[in-house]
Amino acid sequence: MPLPKRVLGRTGLEVTQLGFGAMEIRGDRIWGGRPCDDNQARTILNAVVDAGISFIDTANDYGKSELYIGRHLAHRRSQYYLATKCGCHMVYAGDHDETPHFWNRENLHRNIADSLLKMQTDSVDILQLHNPSVEQCEENGLVDILESLKKQGAIHWLGCSSTSPHLATYINWGVFDVFQIPYSALERRHENLITIAADAGAGVILRGGVAKGEPGVAQGRPADRWDRFEKAKLDELLEPGESRTAFLLRFTLSHPHCHTTIVGTLLPEHLNENVSTAMRGPLASDVYEEAKRRLDTVGESAE
Ligand SMILES: NC(=O)c1ccc[n+]([C@@H]2O[C@H](COP(=O)([O-])OP(=O)(O)OC[C@H]3O[C@@H](n4cnc5c(N)ncnc54)[C@H](OP(=O)(O)O)[C@@H]3O)[C@@H](O)[C@H]2O)c1
Question: What is the pTM of this model?
Fold first, then answer.
């Protein structure tokens, strides 16, 4: 059975509701990431596409991520949509790399040239601004730069990765085709803005959909928000045999405007779990509502 798909807003792209976040294959030089060698990257990336996942998100400053996508998936380019991000930069700093942002035409052009080269492709489906403030976006004419890249054929759709307080303004502008927004049961603040973005016709990419996986089970960097899961007594809502991470993923998939959620993993067994969870689909509507009610009582609410 194929993975469920959704239309990514006005882009019209039909994407799998479970996408892949390729930040986990960045390697250990960026933001305290895990080592990821060539073999691991080849295995997980090909498992992603073999599973039928058709949407991959990365960024120009995700360490080795774009390089690995090019090396191991360029020959399968027609099987997935590709989104990357710009405005960032990687700078050698001895035992790690720093990732400062530069919001100007020169850096955005450097980003896209570098991304296309590394990923061995002529164009990306979506280029997202990597979390600029509204002021940075206005002062530097970033939308015009994206528009010109679209005219030149390097990108097909304009995207913006953003959060409050900037997100609402960006949605109002009506110029971005796609937004990348954090959302899960443990991080609900953008729940209503997601609906507003989708109602305005934008595609919605949700990140943080498994809140980095249940601590102790996930092997990557743990998130600090999992205490809310217990406080809200969400364990009582799990189906027999269902993991907490699977419940969280189904909660995210239950948002009516979750077009895709980009979950990352280095482990094929976790990928398999995420795929079978996505096949089971969203929570029953009464369970979704009950989970939200319980989360409200512990202060985890939509803004
Ligand atoms: N500002 C931005 O634009 C921004 C910021 C952050 C992230 N992103 C994008 O969003 C994507 C998602 O990032 P995220 O921060 O939300 O983290 P995430 O990719 O959702 O979480 C990754 C963590 O979840 C664990 N995990 C995945 N499936 C699991 C399962 N079934 N059971 C247990 N653990 C599981 C992984 O560990 P294992 O390897 O052990 O499975 C890993 O430690 C990134 O890859 C990136 O593309 C964008």
Answer: 0.98
